[in-house]
Every structure is written in structure tokens, then in C-alpha cells.
Amino acid sequence: MLIVELAFTANSERLAGRPAHRALLQGLHEEGHLVAAGPWADDTGALLVFDVERGELDRLLEADPYYRTPGVEVLGVREWAPVVGRGQLATPAAPGPPHR
After folding, report:
1. According to the model, what pLDDT value does residue 84 have?
2. In angstroms, rounded to a whole number, what is the distance separating the alpha carbons of residues 3 and 24?
3. CB 60, CB 54: distance < 8 Å
4. CA-CA distance, 50 to 39, in Å (whole number)?
5. How many domains does the chain have?
6. 30: Cβ–Cβ under 8 A, 6 or more apart, which residues?
7. Binning pLDDT at 50, 70 and 90, where does residue 93 land?
8. Are 89 and 82 in contact (CB under 8 A)?
9. What is the pLDDT of residue 36?
10. In CATH, what number is assigned to the domain containing residue 21?
11. Which of 71, 74, 63, 59 is nearest to 20 (CA)?
12. By three-state DSSP, how is residue 86 classified?
């Protein structure tokens, strides 16, 4: 999974582009490419969790003009390895004490 972190300013262009961006996000969620997305409670940025490979994420970010809108900055993209929930990593069980 990949995490995208955004930072926002109060630029009105960002607010004008938000409805179309959210419609695209809804479609990505319905297709299973987007696990979750939403702004920080103080509206200074957002976090998006994608279940795609990096090349596909780059294509998705390029296809949505919101990520290039004044007032929106992509702070970073990081690979995430959840251990609980959708997409969790399959890890072998830790060995227990020997049976007697």
C-alpha cells in the first residue's frame, strides 16, 4: 500500500477543485484502488491510502489535476506495510515455547 500526504493552503483554487477531486476519489474507492482518504481535522492537509503499485499511483496522481492545483502540495509518498486490516502483511507466527 502507498500513503500520500498532502498539505493545503487557503487558496480558493484548491476549494474550487475539491468537488471534482472527491468524485474521482469515490470512483477509485469503488474500484478498490483507494482504501481511505480525508483531510486532517484542521484542514491543513490530507492523507490518502492507495492499494496500488507505485507506477499506477503515479498515473492516478497525474490524471487528477487537483494535485497540481495552487494550494495543494504533495508532501510525500511512502510505502506502508499494515499488520492489521485490509492489505495486512502475511507474517509467519512467532515460535512459541517447546511442547513437552
Report:
1. 86
2. 17
3. no
4. 15
5. 1
6. none
7. very low
8. yes
9. 96
10. 3.30.70.1060
11. 63
12. coil
